[in-house]
Write a structure and sequence with these properties.
two-stranded antiparallel sheet, five-stranded antiparallel β-sheet, single chain, alpha+beta, 7 helices
Length: 234
């Protein structure tokens, strides 16, 4: 990989948590409980729950999982299309987060949550993936293909009607943003590095992310040498 921990460290900076951005409202415990109840009502009681992980849930699970298997999701693809002014970005230097967007396909993993822990883990998962309204990510049931056959799974997909959906960016524009943005959780470059590294460890080579990490590395190196890369036109 071109994008290394040493390069990521060059753009890390201490950023205070600004709190909930203007125009958003924190979800209450009642909100979470209602969303959890709706999902549980559509899940067969007493059965394991499978979660489709394609990004940070692979390398930083929201709850304890009991095994995983390679999975292919058709009709959706991973893309940096979620604008951040918190977590891994700021109002002064917005960042981008990956989400599932419509079209194409996505290779990731299906993680198993045992039946006896579904309610507990689902609550942890919902609080990790969604914290404000209107929501940026929306939980939905999908069908993934695994070496054991087709499997119903829960996935989190971008809310295209939400204010954080930023639509199409070129690869170069995405690299410009990730090479600069940082929030109180860390940088977008760090998030990209961990995701690509863990996918490669699993034998999943995502050409889009591989090229992106090369471009981000180039931009960080150029900035460190005092020669800024040209910013791609928006």
């Amino acid at each position: 990989m071109s994008l290394t921990a040493d390069l990521v460290a060059l753009i890390h900076r201490h950023v205070l948590d600004p709190g909930t951005p203007p125009g958003f409202e924190p979800l209450t415990d009642q909100d979470h409980d209602q969303r959890q109840a709706a999902l549980l009502a559509s899940h067969p009681k007493g059965e394991d729950l499978w979660l489709f992980a394609y990004g940070s849930l692979i390398w930083k699970p929201a709850c304890e999982v009991d095994g995983q298997r390679h999975a292919l999701l058709r009709g959706w693809h991973r893309k940096f299309c979620l604008k951040l002014v918190r977590y891994r970005g700021s109002a002064e230097c917005p960042g981008l987060m990956m989400a599932l967007d419509i079209g194409g396909s996505c290779r990731g993993v299906a993680q198993r949550i045992p039946a006896q822990r579904v309610e507990e883990c689902l609550g942890q998962l919902l609080r990790r993936e969604t914290s404000v309204k209107p929501a940026s990510n929306v939980p939905r049931w999908v069908t993934v293909e695994t070496d054991k056959g087709k499997q119903r799974a829960l996935a989190f997909a971008i809310n295209r009607k939400g204010p954080t959906y930023c639509g199409p960016h070129t690869l170069e524009q995405t690299a410009d943003i990730l090479a600069r943005a940082c929030g109180h959780w860390g940088s977008g470059a760090e998030y990209l590095m961990h995701t690509v590294a863990h996918l490669e460890d699993l034998g999943i080579h995502d050409r889009y992310l591989w090229k992106l990490q090369e471009l981000v590395a180039e931009r960080i190196k150029a900035a460190a040498m005092g020669r800024e890369m040209p910013i791609a036109a928006s």
